[in-house]
Request: fold
Amino acid sequence: MRWLRRNLFGGVWSTLATLVLGLLLVRLGTGFVLWALVDAQWTVPMTANGPDTAACRDAAGACWAVIGEKYRFILFGAYPYDQQWRPALAVALFILLFVLSAWRRMWRPSLALLWVVLLALILALMWGGFGPLPFVSDTQWGGLPITMLLSTFGCALAFPLAVGVALGRRAERMPVMRLVCVLYVELIRGVPLVALLFMASVMFPLFMPVGLNPDKLLRAQVAIILFAAAYLAEVIRGGLIALPRGQYEAADALGLSWWQKTRLIILPQALRLVVPPLVNTFTGLFKDTSLVLIIGLLDLLTAGSVAIAEPRWSTFGEEVYLMIGAIYFVFCFIASRASRHLEAPRLEK
Amino acid sequence: LRPAFWRSEALRGLFWQCLLVAVLAAGAWYLAGNAVRNLAARHIASGFGFLWQSAPIPIAETPISYQPSVDDYARALLIGLLNTLKVAVCGIVLATIIGTVVGVARLSANALARGLATAWVEALRNTPPLLQLLMWYSALRALPPPRQAWHWPLGIVLSNRGLIVPTLHWQAAHGLAALAFLAGLVVVLVLRRGGRRPAWPVVLTALVVPPLVVWAALGAPFGVSVPVLHGFNFQGGLTLTPEFAALLTGLTVYTSAYIAEIVRAGILAVPRGQWEAASALGLQRGQTLRLVIVPQALRVIIPPLTSEYLNLTKNSTLAVAIGFQDLMSISETTLNQTGQSIEVIAILMAVFLVISVSISAAMNRYGTVLARRYR
Reply:
């Protein structure tokens, strides 16, 4: 009772706000429950011409049958149906990789090796073409693995580039190097990702030798790497700036060369400082890969849109988008909570 | 003791920079060579001459007059830019308002307000903006057709053709009244320059009386254009198409969640002592916020807010996915029709860089003005 009084009815305005918001919440809540549960259709009858969605059209509520019918396509795209355990396993490996990387005890140089091994394993699993695994072309990949692939490879391959650019932008005695790095970061960050992806899909072939036309997935991946590197570079630069000057001076006093100083003193500390913003950048990228819809690559969101392009399911977009939204939410929410626990270690000044 | 000359830092710096320039130049040379050969193979002449060819692009929303196949590509792209600016400006204003309300609600003493604001922020920040946009668009498209449209108070009509609001019949008297208002505004600003602020009745009189007098002297004309069902669609009023409405809603709602967090962090960054000092002075909560907290919080808020404004502007290119014809969408069509990819992309990049720099410059200026006022 005391909690209620203090938190809901502490004064005229607070009481009024509680009443208005409570009424709104009850109305929206019951509306949603009616739509999503009470009036919803869970299955549709199967006919010779495929599923018959007439019952769904007449129902006032949601049509969850569309999920039951399409979830395999939304999750795995056009990957051969009987081989879909492979993308499922790939997704599991990605999750394993994230969980291991979030474990502080794993933060040592050998983590990079683990990334290389696991990512190579994932690619081998997806492509196949050896032993009992038949070859599956990447034009058939789709759904959740594409989303994870683009964002994870995007970050992993952008990372070395980002470290280089961040260091280059801090190089005090090299004006040309600094200028090149600043131009790169500001140009990429000033332009929307949609424009970059679009550029990759129309301009990339133009700059390749005549006749060579890299596939759509690779082109999008290159654009995402270049995009991610600019943002990661800014985050890493933040860490380089936040590191106390004494660390740089102490390294110089020890007579370490630039490479030794950077590798042994600066980077290990600076990178640890920026783990939370790095995770945020990664979640941002995970959400942003959905933009490949614009160049027609079959990621999770595009697969959902394609699934409801079929006329008989075309009016049930909300159901599919809710499901896809829930998947994105789970990953991003967990990542953002985890990044809060990976608080930056305290520096001794 | 000096190190050997090849160990000197200056020489090493020079070496690495020369190497970088050489690599970049070689890369650029290789790519440019490929581009020249590819363009020759496709028979595309480079240059910006295509801008003055007539553009057969049908455009649904045209803030300035435009006829497909009569007007040129330059005008089509200009319309795209105007559409981008329209949605960005409206989005920035609305997202700031909603974001501030939600951000303050997250710090409210009321648990329900706090909980709803937190749910708002978490749900919106953890899903892709494109997904939200598609959801808004499909929700707007699922509205009833014009014949069964929802009629709201004040003559607002919502149907699957969009949101229609009544507008004023603009006449000469209204224009003159607006001029009178501007004159009043100038008077108020001149009065303020004297040092002390004029009392509020003076301000109110200066701003309200001249336009009213002008309007009444010209016969007080007043007419409203109300949406009326005509055949299968509405006529009159101002229509927000479903595409524009969905894009504006999507961008506003998504960005408001980020702005809410920025506002919350900004308010929390003001030390507790400031609240306590204000209450010791006998200020009420509203006064404390307005006079003590917000001016100090704004200094923390401005830089991240700037980058959110930039993000909103960049995210407006998601319009491509729902067919709202912004700059990106018209560039894409232009590119497909003319094949001038390098030129079109160059224009696109230049325009976005100019927009980004302008927003940053404006916000920086605002920041310095603030810093000067509340030292």
Notes: The mean pLDDT of chain A is 85. Chain A is about 70% helix and 0% strand.
